[in-house]
Structure formats: structure tokens, C-alpha cells
Amino acid sequence: MRLQQPIHVDKPVQSIKLRISAIDVPLSAAVLVTDIQLQSGEQASGVVPNPAEVGTTPTREQYRNGVINPGLKVVALSNAGKATPVTMQVRGQGPVKVGSYRFGPLNGQATADGVKHTASHGYGLVPIVTERQDLNLDTEITARAHLRLGWIERE
């Protein structure tokens, strides 16, 4: 069983304490807490397994390029067999937010790599293409920008 609970705060989090309790569990049962996932960002991507743990293998590379405009959503078509992280490259000026990843004010190019867990600018959650779903990303920008999304499909 997986439990998900979003927590929204208005300022940076200094520390987190978790208290897990089980109520009304029969004496013959056991409760094991095996994994806790804390995820930054405003949008929960759900449970996404680590590719190394589930034994998926990389297949072909996919890229989506386009110009993003203020107030418009990005939809990157995908039919990936398994969940996979995305690499984003943005070129533009002014504050840029794609999905829940905040690049901050840009004057040129920035990159956020979900595979390597690296970024040249900003902070947040790099999008994940979920199994058999298109990638839908809200944007917050003040001027047109160019976005390149890339991922390696997994099977």
C-alpha cells in the first residue's frame, strides 16, 4: 500500500520530522515501513520506481523541441513503456518556470538533467514521463522561450 499526502508551505523548509503510526492493527499482523519518498515541488509526480531497481533497460532517445509562450501549457507526446526522467534545455530571457522546476531569471541557456540530478540554474522537480502518458507541463514565463525536452525510453 502506498500513501501520498501533499504538504504545502510558503517558505523554504529547514527540516522535516515524520511520525508514522499504525492504529487498529491485529496482533497477528506486522507493519513494515520500507520506503519513504519526499519530493520537492508543487506537483506530485506519484510513485516512480528507480530504473536500476526495477530492471528496466534503456531503448531509444526521444526529443521534443518547441517555442513556449506565456500562458500556454506544454504537451510533449510520449508512449513510453516505463517511467523515465527528462532532461530540459531552456533558452530565453526573464523568469522561467517549466512544470514545477524553477529556472529563475535567465539571460541565455539553462539545463536541468533528471537522469544525472544536475542543473545549471534553479531548483525543483525535473519532470518525469510516466508510463504510457503524455507529459503535460504548466509554464510561467514573461517572454517567449525555446524548450528542448529529451528522455531515453525504457522497457
Descriptive report:
By secondary structure, the chain is an all-beta fold. The protein has a domain at 51-154: Jelly Rolls (Sandwich), CATH 2.60.120. The chain is built from one helix and eleven strands; from the N terminus they run H-E-E-E-E-E-E-E-E-E-E-E. The strands form three sheets. Strands 1, 4, 5, 6, 7, 10 and 11 form a seven-stranded antiparallel β-sheet that branches. A hairpin with a 2-residue loop joins strand 4 and strand 5 (101-113). The two termini are 24 Å apart.
In brief, what are we looking at here?
With 155 residues, this protein is an all-beta fold. Helix content is 3%, strand content 41%.
Write a concise keyword list for the protein shown above.
about 160 residues; mainly beta; Jelly Rolls; seven-stranded antiparallel sheet; two-stranded antiparallel sheet; 1 helix; 11 strands; globular
Write down the CATH topology of the domain at 51-154. Jelly Rolls
CATH architecture verdict of the domain at 51-154: Sandwich
User: Mean pLDDT, rounded to whole units?
Assistant: 82
Main beta-sheet annotation: 7 strands, antiparallel
Shape from CA axes? globular
Q: What pattern of helices and strands is seen along the backbone? A: HEEEEEEEEEEE
The CATH class of the domain at 51-154 turns out to be Mainly Beta
Task: Please count the beta strands (DSSP E, at least 2 residues each).
Answer: 11
